[in-house]
Each structure stands twice: as C-alpha cells, then as structure tokens.
Amino acid sequence: MDKAAVIGAGSWGTALASVLAHNGVPTVLWAREAEVVAQVNDDHVNRMFLPDAPLPDSLVATSRLDEALGGAGLVVSVAPAQWVASVMAEAAPFLEDDAIVVSASKGIEINTLRRMDEVLDDILTPSQKQTFSVLSGPSFALEVARGAPTAVVVASRSEAAAQRVQAQFQNRFFRVYTSPDVVGVELGGALKNVIAVGAGVATGLGFGHNTRAALITRGLAEITRLGLAMGARRETFSGLAGMGDLVLTCTGDLSRNRAVGVRLGQGESLEAILGEMTAVAEGVRTVEAVVELARRFGVEMPIATEVHAVLTEGRDPREALNNLMSRDPKPEDWS
What is the DSSP letter of 9? Predict the structure, then answer.
C-alpha cells in the first residue's frame, strides 16, 4: 500500500491516521506540537486531542513536513479550516507530484469564502488537482478511533482516485462510499456545523425532540438551497455528507458545535465557552462565511442568520428562536 501522510494531529486527523495504520498502511502523522509527537511515538496516544483512544503501534508522528510527506502517495489534509491555506502552502514543496491529496477539514475560509477544494486549488500542481478528493460524513473522531462501525463518503472528480482512497481507508468498521460531487460533500461538511450550534441552543433552552427535529429538517433545507445555488447535486444532501452528518452533529454528545450551542442556550458567554476549549468548533467561525454566501447567492437561510446573530451580535437565544417561529407562513420549499 502507498505510504500515507496525515497533516494535522487534532482529534479527527489522529483518528484518520489510526484507521490507515490499522489497515496496514505505513502512516505518518504530522503535528506542530512536540508533546503530541512524543506521545504518539512513545505512548501510542494523543493525550492533547484524543486522549481516550489507544493508537496502533505502527503509527509514527513527526513535526517535520519533509519526513511526513516524502514518498507519501496519499496525503490527508486535516488542519482546521482557517489554517489549511498556510499549513498546506508550507507542505506543498514536499508533496510527491503524483500524490492523491484528500481534504478532511470541514469549513469555509472566512476571509475569502472559499471551500477547502478552492483553497487547495491554489496550492496543488495540475496533476494533484486532477486526483484531489474530499472525505466527509457522520464520524465522531473518538468513535472512529475506537473502531465503532462508521460510514463516510469520499468525493473526487476522478473516479479512479476516489476508488484508491476508498481502498486505503475501508475496513470492517470504516465503510467508505464514493461520489463525484466535490462541491456538495464539501458544503455538507461545513454547513452542518452552523445548524448544530442552533440545535444545541434549543437544547440549552430546555426544548426537546420536536424542536431539534424541526431545526435539523429545516436546516437541511437551508443547506440544500445554498448547495444547489453553488453547483452541488441535490442527492448529496440526502446522503452521508448531508443528512447523515447533520443528524450526528445536531444530536451527538461528542459534537463540539452542539456543545457550544447548549452552553449558549444556558446563558454562558461565547468568550467563556471558547476560552475553555482545546479543539476547534468550526461552526462558530464558518457561520460568518455562510451568511455572506447566502447573501451573495440570494438564498434564504433563516436558521443560519439567527445563529449568526446569537454568535456575533449577542442576540438572546430565546429571541432568535422566537424569530424563527414567528416568520410568515409558507409552503415547505426545498428549492
């Protein structure tokens, strides 16, 4: 099997590196933090970002990009979305020209409103662009690292590249489907985090299953509308990268975005919440880009708009929910 390099040793990057190593793929995990490198190599654990999951003994970590990327036929980019451009620009000189680069970061670059495939399009060589792929789907890192049955999707404009990535990752607990819809898979992974913050707020306010189901379903309608306007395929949002990831992130206790929303609904300040977090809740930053994209494409996204107001304008969560429930009656429209 090809050597694999995973660039980014947060919880998700560590979990994906664990899957590859478990499959017998020679895998190197790149981390900036010296303590993470030492823990993975010496103790086979990442205490900083994934403390409760033992890692395969064969998994190697390094803080040198040349060591990680040299000879790697599969490169997984898993830095937080707002850092992908800088990290992968630093990595670019060491990428093998025929490497398949897989983006597993879920977010939109705020300053430019670019998806991760657009960010990397400015960095990769022509041959790397042809095989570029995106991996997404309902997959909490801790459960993946512990071997819980999980299904994800890898999208690429090259069917052969998607199948190669599928072959490297798939095993008895990690099932990988393929798709040609790079845009849809990217957007599903990024936009669901915003809706998850809203679902968490409703839970923090004390509301139950009815409210959560409404937010998930109407949230999916918003995601689908924007996705279609940006060139994605409708069916993608009914699949793993759409509905699947949305349900997981809006309901699961391991969801960082949902957890931020719960605490906001309970009256805590965003500053205090983020000050206690080690990992990144992508929806907190992505919401700014989502609202601006909706404006540019002329797409109505009321849930995202209210989440944005709570996060950036200090709107009271109860007022935000009341605004959603008080909107003018209308047909159920997904287009």
Answer: -
Residue 182 pLDDT exceeds 70? yes
Tell me if the domain spanning 183-325 has CATH number 1.10.287.600: no
Phi/psi-derived region of residue 165, left when phi > 0, alpha when psi is between -120 and 50, beta in every other case:
alpha
Cα separation, 86 vs 295, whole angstroms = 27
How many other CB atoms sit within 10 Å of the CB of residue 256? Answer: 22
Closest CA relative to residue 264, chosen from 325, 190, 205:
205
State the CB neighbour count (10 A cutoff) for residue 25: 20
Distance of CA 188 to the CA centre of its chain: 9
Instruction: Provide the whole-model pTM.
Output: 0.94
Residue range(s) in the chain whose domain bears CATH number 1.10.1040.10: 183-325
Mean pLDDT of 37-49: 97
Best CA proximity match to 179, nearest among 167, 192, 162:
162
- Do residues 119 and 109 touch, judged by C-beta distance below 8 A? yes
| DSSP 8-state secondary structure symbol assigned to residue 328 | P
Catalytic residue (choose from 3, 106, 129, 192): 192
Closest CA to 161 of 212, 202, 206, 117: 117
Fold of 3-180: Rossmann fold (3.40.50)
129 as an active site residue: the answer is no
- Rounded CA gap, 8 and 103, in Å? 11
